[in-house]
Description:
Blueprint: H1 3-6, H2 10-34, H3 39-51, E1 64-65, H4 71-81, H5 83-102, H6 114-136, H7 145-150, H8 152-160, H9 165-181, H10 194-209, H11 221-224, H12 230-234, H13 239-264, H14 274-291, E2 297-298, H15 300-308, H16 315-330, H17 340-353, H18 357-366, H19 368-383, H20 386-405, E3 408-413, E4 420-428, H21 433-441, E5 449-459, H22 461-476, E6 483-485
Parallel strand pairs: 4-5, 5-6
Antiparallel strand pairs: 1-2, 3-4
Helix pairs in contact: 2-3, 2-10, 2-15, 2-16, 2-17, 3-14, 3-16, 4-5, 5-13, 5-14, 6-17, 6-19, 6-20, 9-10, 9-17, 13-14, 13-15, 18-19, 19-20, 21-22
Organism: Streptomyces macrolidinus
Domain SLC26A/SulP transporter: 10-377
Subcellular location: Membrane
Amino acid sequence: MTAPKRFPHLRQDLAASLVVFLVALPLCVGVAVASGVPAELGLVTGIVGGLVTGLLRGSTLQVSGPAAGLTVLVFELVRDSGLPVLGAVVLTTGLLQLALGALGLGRWFRAISVSVVEGMLAGIGLVLIAGQLYPVADATAPASGLAKIAGLPQVLVDAAQSSRAPASLALGAGTIAVLVLWKRLPPAVRTVPAPLAAVGLATAAATALALPVATVEVRGLLESLQPPPLEAFGELATVSMLGTVVAFTLIASAESLFSAAAVDRMHDGPRTQYDHELIAQGAGNTVCGLLGALPMTAVIVRSAANVQAGARTKASRVLHGVWLLLFAALLPSLLAYIPIPALAGVLVYSGAKLVPVRRLVALWREHPGEALILVVTAVSVMVVSMFEGVLVGLALSVVKTAWEASHLRLDVVDKGAGPVQVHLSGNATFLRLPKLLGALEALPQDRPVELDLSGLHHLDHACRTALAHWAERHSAAGTEPVRVTPARG
């Protein structure tokens, strides 16, 4: 059997893998630097995403690696607990994902409210933008999301008085400008991925002009690997750390499976097997944890580039991992030339794409309740933390669903003589008791009432008891007893 017959799409997959590699390279490095870890660890996660997750079943064309969505959470964890604990958290996250996938729970992540997930990502995006504007201005970012936003005016004032900041600001702004304008350039130019072009141009400018800007610190691939020691797992016994593990698992899994659904809409190939995809993500995160690297998720930017470049099988994503490995092994010194303001500019642009402004406007017109959940979740993530923000969003989503599920219609027919007829339809739950009792108590006390409950789909215990008590009070006033047509079932 000849090679072309064994690998009929090798040419397309090889070309696509090179495109994905060029997209992934600056993003892997940028996410690592923004997360407060050695740049090489971002490459390690990208390599594992290609060589481990890429080989497993799940989503054929989806590409995994370090993602901007977890940057804020990783930075706070590394800052507060250290790099060894990051490895323990990522490893535990991977094992949880493996268990969830093996139990067939992968598809249930699709049941998470889209507004909550988008609100979570929007909150991350806003914190990411605020945080990365500091290295763009050659400054150090504060710890909390609110402090990052509140401190931006002072950063601009300090930058205007600094000798180094103007060059840093120029590189960062130039990088963002290239990313925004790249899609308007001729197709022949756009064969080079925008992130690579932006970082490449910034690196060339910084080197040629000898600009006084911070660059990536290079440690070497093997030197950067820090497998978590056993004592690091003891740190996970606290409630806050368990919450962090849950947050990592929820965000990494939900983002990966939502990305898979989006990628499925981009091509006509095999559909995603959600449980297998969750197992693949878990295997990747387990290996990343063992190596002390960044957590991974499926990344929509790389996945879209893979599909648009003509990939046909999972060979493209595996090969992209091979190219990342070769670069990390043979050319790591090139990382030392990359300006940090340029990487920060890439992440500011990535953070902006996480904020669904256009969708929020449309959502507000069609489903204002969902838009409110999105906004409240995003603000909570910024003000409090990732985990608590998501919990607030989920709680609001449950309350909204319960409120809508308890829709109750009350129709009163009063012909001026004879009994007043009251018809109830829908779902009578305790959430609607104030409205229901208010309407019934407003009925004339000296008129008989016929209460028709046959249109109710559900009548909970609280409403049943309240209706019985109201009927007793109404009848006690000397009026003819209330006649009740019972609910169905």
